[in-house]
Structures are given as structure tokens and as C-alpha cells.
Q: What sequence folds into this?
């Protein structure tokens, strides 16, 4: 990651190049203001007048998005802008929805000052050196397999053929992923054909980091409207009666596991080949204004085996990852509860 001065200078260069910016003066690069530290104060000439911005400098923004980025702009009388090394499209969309101005070192930017300035530039992608590009481990199929390995370390000692079967990926891809886990030092051979994790927590954190941008889009089958009269108990009864495989995750799984976060939507994992049957039996209508999301239950192994509830749930790591993807205060609090109760003992 570049240091803050480099990020600040690159973002300033990008900012100055954007129309209708005429001139930017750096009033200060770091100071205390209203008993809080700021990373800079800018005077921006837009031709029709001047705007003043306080800036916050960050590296690459990752999930969970720091909650203070949403709160900070509301505290200040000046305009706020985030300078970052890189903001990927998914996170950019979340920042825009929360009216957080930002610009990154690649030139991606969203700056909206009502009645004065509107800039929306996206699509510049981070070029990663070839030797640092995501390996097969952190591509969608690798993340599928990794979820099973992380949740149950005993699966490390299954044959490649069995790993391929339970993870729903090809034998060749399975072999490549396991080989790369060995090469990168994430798993070690302790005896002949016996393996254990090395730096398991670091690997889990990388799984979480890649979940929202790589795995989740592949798992999401669609968003739907379901009758508000059709609750979880009724859905469960219908699907069980039809002998369909399913499990709840996301906000729904979090509510069942913790009784702390009321679910705003129903998040349901189903087998992709049973999608049309599920839509038919639950009387779903595709909708962008949804109250139900369907995800791909790509393996029976991602159903939580230790769940004491009668309602089937996916593995807690999927519930945890989805909550961090949502990234609001209550979701992150709930994610921490789930981590301490269900995940910490298998990761640390």
C-alpha cells in the first residue's frame, strides 16, 4: 500500500484534472479541528465560486467499510471527501448511496455538492502486478472449496476426488487449488498425506476480503418478492414437503443464530437446479424492490451441521461474511457476536 502522502498527492492530481475544477489550494495537510484530526483542508475553485473540503486519507478500502466514513461527513460543517488508494465498484456504489464523496488514486470519483458540483467517474480498475494477482485460491471456485476447508479442517485430509465432489468443482481445479495452498504456505504436510493449516486466520481474512467481490456475485441467483404473509416457518414447511434442499443465511441466518438482528429480508440458499421449482412453490416474483434473495447452495457441506435449530442454516462463516458485506453498525455488531460464538474456535 502506498503511504498517505503518496495517496494524497495522487488523489490531488486526479482531483485537479476533473472538470469543472479550476484550481485547488492545499490549506493544510494535517491539523486538529474541533478536537479531531483531519488529513487535510482544501480550497477548491470551481469557476463559479469556491468550496472547502476536509479530507480523510485511506489506503485501499475493503469490507467491512469503516463505519466512521459514513458518520464523519455528518459531523462537519465543511464538505468531506475521502482520498483512497483504490475504491472498487461495489464499495463505490455503497459510498455513493451514503453520499460519501471520494476520489481514488486511479481517478474513480464521486463528488456531489448540491447546487454546486456533481462528478461521477467510475470504471478505472486497479492493475495488479502479475506475480501478485489473485491465484486460483481466491477465484470463485477456489473460495467455494476454501469455505469447506476453513469450516472443517478434517476435510484437508480427504482425497482430491472427494474434495471435488463435496465442493462442486472439477477435479483438475481442486488439484490446482490444493497445490497453490501448499506453495503459498497456507497448508503444511505434517505426515504422509496428512495436512494442517498454517496461518489459518490470515487465510480466513483473505476469504472474507474476497467474498463480497468474487464469491457472492456468483452465488446470488436473484432477488424476488414474496408475500409478507409467507414467513420463515411457512417457507420451511413448503420446501420440506417438496423435498427440496435449502438453508437460510445472511440476515435471516443471523437472526436465528443470535436473536439480535431482525432480518430485513429473507436470505435463502437453494440448489441452482431447483430454482424454478422454488420460485413456483413459494410463488416468487423477480423484483429489484425485493424482500427475498436466493443464493446457490452449491454443496450440502455448507449446511451448518451443529445447528441446534430445526430450521436449516448455512455455515456461520457465510452468515458472518454477508453481515460484513452489509456493513452497517448493527450488522457488524451481530457479525462480531457470531465470530466469537461460532467462528473464533475453528479459525484462531
A:
Amino acid at each position: 500500500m502506498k503511504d498517505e502522502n503518496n495517496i494524497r498527492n495522487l488523489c490531488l492530481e486526479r482531483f485537479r484534472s476533473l472538470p469543472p475544477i479550476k484550481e485547488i489550494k492545499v490549506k493544510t495537510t494535517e491539523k486538529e479541528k474541533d478536537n479531531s484530526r483531519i488529513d487535510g483542508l482544501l480550497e477548491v475553485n470551481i469557476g463559479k465560486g469556491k468550496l472547502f473540503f476536509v479530507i480523510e486519507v485511506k489506503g485501499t478500502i475493503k469490507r467491512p467499510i469503516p463505519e466512521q466514513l459514513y458518520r464523519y461527513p455528518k459531523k462537519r460543517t465543511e464538505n468531506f471527501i475521502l482520498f483512497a488508494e483504490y475504491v472498487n465498484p461495489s464499495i463505490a456504489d455503497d459510498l455513493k448511496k451514503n453520499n460519501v464523496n471520494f476520489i481514488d488514486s486511479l481517478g474513480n470519483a464521486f463528488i456531489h455538492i448540491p447546487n454546486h458540483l456533481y462528478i461521477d467517474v467510475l470504471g478505472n480498475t486497479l492493475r495488479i502486478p502479475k506475480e501478485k494477482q489473485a491465484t486460483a485460491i481466491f477465484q470463485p471456485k477456489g473460495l467455494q472449496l476454501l469455505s469447506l476447508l476453513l469450516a472443517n479442517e478434517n476435510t484437508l485430509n480427504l482425497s482430491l476426488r472427494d474434495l471435488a465432489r463435496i465442493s462442486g468443482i472439477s477435479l483438475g481445479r481442486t488439484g490446482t487449488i490444493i497445490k497453490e495452498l501448499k506453495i503459498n504456505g497456507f497448508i503444511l504436510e505434517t505426515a504422509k498425506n496428512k495436512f494442517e493449516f498454517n496461518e489459518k486466520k490470515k487465510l480466513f481474512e483473505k476469504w472474507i476480503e474476497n467474498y463480497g467481490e468474487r464469491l457472492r456475485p456468483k452465488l446470488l441467483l436473484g432477488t424476488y418478492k414474496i408475500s409478507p404473509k409467507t414467513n420463515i416457518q411457512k417457507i420451511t414447511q413448503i420446501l420440506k414437503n417438496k423435498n427440496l434442499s435449502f438453508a437460510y443465511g445472511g440476515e435471516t441466518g443471523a437472526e436465528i443464530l443470535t436473536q439480535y438482528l431482525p432480518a430485513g429480508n429473507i436470505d435463502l440458499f437453494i440448489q441452482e437446479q431447483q430454482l424454478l421449482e422454488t420460485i413456483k412453490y413459494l410463488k416468487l416474483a423477480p423484483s429489484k424492490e425485493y424482500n427475498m434473495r436466493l443464493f446457490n447452495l452449491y454443496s450440502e457441506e455448507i449446511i451448518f451441521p451443529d445447528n441446534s435449530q430445526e430450521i436449516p442454516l448455512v455455515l456461520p462463516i457465510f452468515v458472518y461474511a454477508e453481515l460484513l458485506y452489509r456493513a452497517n453498525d448493527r450488522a457488524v455488531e451481530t457479525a462480531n457476536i457470531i465470530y466469537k460464538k461460532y467462528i473464533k474456535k475453528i479459525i484462531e
About this structure: Residues 4-121 form a domain with the Trna Endonuclease; Chain: A, domain 1 fold (CATH 3.40.1350). The first helix runs from residue 4 to 16. The longest strand covers residues 50-60. The chain has a mean pLDDT of 88.
